[in-house]
Write a structure and sequence with these properties.
heterodimer; A: 525 residues; mainly alpha; MetI-like fold; 2 domains; 20 helices; B: 331 residues; alpha/beta; D-Maltodextrin-Binding Protein, domain 2; five-stranded mixed sheet; 14 helices; 40% helix; 16% strand; disordered N terminus
């Protein structure tokens, strides 16, 4: 009876093995068939290249891993610090969330050159970009963990008259450990991606450097070999952390959901005022940072420069027109891509629940594939699907698909036990169980996935546009950097930030409406 | 280390360098002297072969300079490190330099490494583009960033640009080989070389042979540096000129040196050798034979100004400053 309701966590190894073998064979077959098209390299070619260039690839991997690990440590430390601050001072949680989201949405193509100047020659930009890539996810995931203890534990601590600090040490921190581990697993591939893109700002070694060389020199086998090495190492770190967790008896957290947004209790005027205050603070932070570092106004534009470029200047209307067209083009790839990723992730999760053994085989594979960095997949997918909209949309969808699938499967597992029992006692079929009990349970996970997909979609679209298609805002930003039109570049960043915040607010509102209808318990304080 | 009192940025800079422990720039092992950096426009490759020779043979060290060559990359514009004072000299191109100046960067072009612009139209022998007229009705793969370049070529040769179908690509040769495009807008010294190494012959139409005159691989410095650190700039360019003279005598050795100096870049020795050969005719012409490496004439400046106007950039001859070259070559 219970066997059907729960997807077993440990799959049959033969099924998984057969799945992987099948994939490898299909891959090899496809590569043999497309030999002359400069698109795909198969496992046999990759193995051969690994044998020939093993030393070079290992040195590159170590260089990238070193920068990635430093950034990983730095970013996780900052994310943890932010989460602790938010728990100890709940008032600052919303501003912190907004700022960390904005930082996360900063396009790599824009931050790279500025970081290179601030940090000088060396691996500074690689480390900084790796750190920037992990702060937001660490912050939001650990924050959920710090709140994950049952209310009765807090009551207990308070009944002994203990302080907030005691509450933190004795209840919150222990409760957050599984979430921290999950955050580290999410952060590992992101840090690797940041380190690779950091190398684009000028480096002498590393996987990012080798990727550029391979694409430029038509070295398809090289590009796929680097992708394989990057993906394998990200998967190894991901898996290693999982093994560590099991050794330490850390039970994986039930659902990796950011808490649903606060219900709107304040008056619209008060909320508007808070928003204005936050905006002002972000602008001050921006101006202050540029001034404190004494960065040249030639490339480090301030809020007033962007204002002049977009609003007050004589050509502002033309500028707005250009940027909005580019933004529209980017949105026309990001939006369908994100929706396709969400729909296919949720859809496959639902299908897999109807066939549990399949879910057991697919879930670990998805967890692993989730850890492949986008800078590696983007050129490959575009190589395969071409430079039209389809390629970019597919890159975004792939980026959103895996985390959505994982989150939704996890949500489906948490269908209400009593309802399932009732359905079972009436001998209801799998479809009815799915529709009545399991899909509503999946909804919060889907909503959280949608929110988390915003930065992912922005990152994937602008990266694909920049590296592969030469269209949209991603490509426009690369061009403005090359032609020293830094006012346009910073204005693009501001537009992306505003679009991300608007999307975030929109999804949060939709989420509240949906949850109020289908899963009211999620909104309880 | 630095001449002025350290600013907060320099302290951060130092912290960043310490964090990175190993500087990425290339330095000779016996480094001493005045620290000077040159910002390259791309990842290390034989494109900068003369600089590596100068470094290896001590042409800078013997003048008391401790030179660091800062690598570029797809996300490493040359202008910011120059404006920020991290690099004394940068490798630019007349069109990008003019754009930076229009945005307020006080740059001057003080030397020109590539006398002929390396932009070309590369096609396959079965469907070749030998002259601009052949472009009509073809599908041209190019990064949209380079749209002004194509428009200028069409204007110079009286061709209707709308009769060319543009296939937006980023910078790689795959679209041509996959049949998504009939020809590519690229540099003669990279994608055609990559195809040659893969065993694919290509037809290369150099745009410089059809009126497109834009100085490429320029040496740029800020007006401030030219006023205050002129001596170092002269020495830097002098060593550079010596390095490139050596390069000209034996490009294959320069290619070998490049591969040897940067073992972690995965450079293909064969590709480096072909590239080293192919950039020779772009860099060494009658003008350099008569006046020395990096020289530019008033006529070529005039031609550049005309081409830049077609690219929508209005500049005057004061963007160029030949005084450093005159000092370097002693006339």
């Amino acid at each position: 009876m219970t066997g059907q309701a729960l997807v077993p966590l440990r799959p049959g190894p033969w099924l998984q093995g057969a799945g992987v073998l099948g994939l490898l064979l299909a891959w090899e077959g496809a590569s043999q068939a497309s030999q002359s098209h400069f698109v795909l390299a198969g496992p046999s070619q990759i193995l051969e290249r690994l044998r020939l260039d093993g030393g070079l690839l290992l040195r590159a991997l170590l260089a990238t891993l070193r920068a990635g690990a430093l950034g990983f440590a730095l970013g996780v430390a900052v994310g943890l610090g932010l989460a602790l601050t938010a728990v100890l001072a709940p008032r600052v949680e919303r501003p912190l969330t907004t700022i960390s989201l904005l930082l996360f949405c900063l396009p790599l193509v824009a931050t790279g050159p500025v970081l290179r100047v601030i940090l000088g020659p060396g691996i500074g930009p690689q480390v900084a970009l790796a750190a920037l890539a992990v702060v937001h996810t660490t912050f939001t995931t650990v924050l959920v963990g710090l709140r994950a203890a049952p209310a009765s534990w807090f009551d207990l601590v308070r009944s002994y008259g203990r302080t907030r600090w005691a509450e933190l040490w004795q209840v919150r921190l222990p409760a957050s450990v599984p979430y921290l581990l999950a955050a580290l697993q999410i952060a590992a591939p992101a840090a690797l991606l940041g380190a690779m893109v950091g190398e684009f700002t000028g480096a002498e070694r590393g996987l990012g450097v080798l990727t550029i060389q391979a694409i430029r020199s038509l070295d398809v086998v090289g590009a796929w070999t680097i992708a394989t090495v990057a993906a394998a190492s990200a998967m190894a770190v991901h898996g290693g952390l999982g093994v560590l967790g099991r050794r330490l008896d850390i039970i994986p957290p039930p659902v990796l959901l950011a808490p649903p947004p606060d219900p709107p209790v304040r008056s619209p005027a008060a909320r508007g005022l808070a928003l204005l205050g936050l905006m002002g603070f972000v602008l001050l932070l921006w101006q202050g940072l540029m001034d404190a570092l004494a960065l040249s106004p030639f490339f480090a534009k301030r809020p007033a420069d962007v204002w002049a470029y977009l609003v007050a200047g004589s050509d502002a209307a033309v500028h707005r027109q250009t940027l909005l067209v580019a933004l529209g083009e980017t949105a026309s790839h990001a939006l369908p891509g994100a929706l396709a990723g969400l729909a296919s992730g949720a859809g496959l999760a639902a299908l897999l629940v109807l066939a549990p053994p399949f879910a057991a085989a697919v879930l670990p594979l998805s967890l692993a594939l989730r850890s492949i960095p986008v800078v590696v997949t983007a050129p490959l997918i575009v190589l395969g699907l071409g430079r039209g909209p389809a390629g970019t949309i597919a890159v975004v969808a792939a980026m959103v698909f895996f985390p959505t699938l994982v989150a939704c499967l996890s949500g489906l597992r948490h269908a209400s036990r009593p309802i399932l029992d009732i359905l079972d006692s009436y001998d209801a079929g799998r479809i009815r169980r799915l529709a009545i009990a399991q899909l509503p349970a999946m909804l919060p996970a889907l909503c959280a996935s949608a929110r988390m997909s915003i930065p992912a979609a922005i990152l994937a679209t602008t990266t694909a546009e920049w590296l592969a298609t030469g269209r949209g805002l991603g490509s426009h930003m690369a061009m403005t950097a090359m032609t020293s039109d830094y006012a346009a570049l910073w204005s693009s960043i501001v537009l992306i930030g505003l679009a991300a915040l608007a999307a975030h607010a929109g999804i949060a509102a939709l989420e509240r409406a949906l949850l109020a209808r289908f899963a009211p318990e999620q909104l309880a304080p | 280390m630095t001449r002025s009192a350290p600013t907060r940025r320099q302290l951060l800079f130092t912290a960043g360098s310490l964090l990175g422990s190993g500087l990425l720039g290339v330095r000779p092992t016996h480094a001493q002297g005045i620290p000077v950096a040159m910002q390259l426009s791309w990842l290390h490759s034989v494109q900068f072969g003369g600089s590596y020779i100068a470094l290896r043979n001590g042409y800078w060290a013997e003048q008391g300079l401790d030179v660091t060559l800062l690598p570029g990359g797809p996300n490493a514009p040359v202008a910011p490190p120059l404006v920020a004072g991290q690099a004394l000299l940068g490798r630019g191109a007349a069109d990008y330099d003019a754009a930076a100046v229009a945005q307020g960067a006080p740059f001057r072009i003080i030397g020109v490494a590539m006398q002929k612009n390396p932009f070309c139209i590369a096609s396959l022998p079965a469907n070749p583009v030998h002259e601009p007229r052949d472009l009509l009705g073809k599908r041209l793969g190019m990064a949209l960033i380079n749209r002004p370049v194509l428009d200028a070529l069409c204007a110079l040769n009286g061709i209707d640009a709308t009769a060319i179908e543009i296939v937006p690509t980023q910078y790689d040769a795959a679209p041509l080989l996959q049949g998504q495009a009939d020809c590519l807008l690229c540099w003669a010294t990279d994608l055609p070389v990559a195809m040659a190494v893969q065993g694919v012959d290509s037809v290369v139409m150099l745009m410089a042979d059809h009126g497109y005159e834009i100085h490429a691989q320029t040496y740029i410095a800020t007006e401030d540096s030219l006023a205050q650190r002129r001596d170092e700039i002269v020495k830097l360019l002098r060593g550079e000129a010596r390095g490139w003279q050596d390069y000209r005598k034996d490009p294959a050795a320069a290619a070998a040196l490049t591969v040897e100096m940067f073992p972690d870049l995965g450079l293909d020795p064969e590709a480096q050798r072909i590239q080293a050969e192919r950039q020779l005719p772009l860099m060494f012409t009658d003008v350099t034979d008569a006046h020395g490496f990096g020289w530019f004439t008033d006529e070529s400046v005039e031609a550049n100004i005309r081409t830049l106007a077609l690219l929508g950039q209005e500049v005057g001859p004061d963007l160029w400053d030949r005084s450093v070259l005159e000092e370097v070559h002693g006339n």
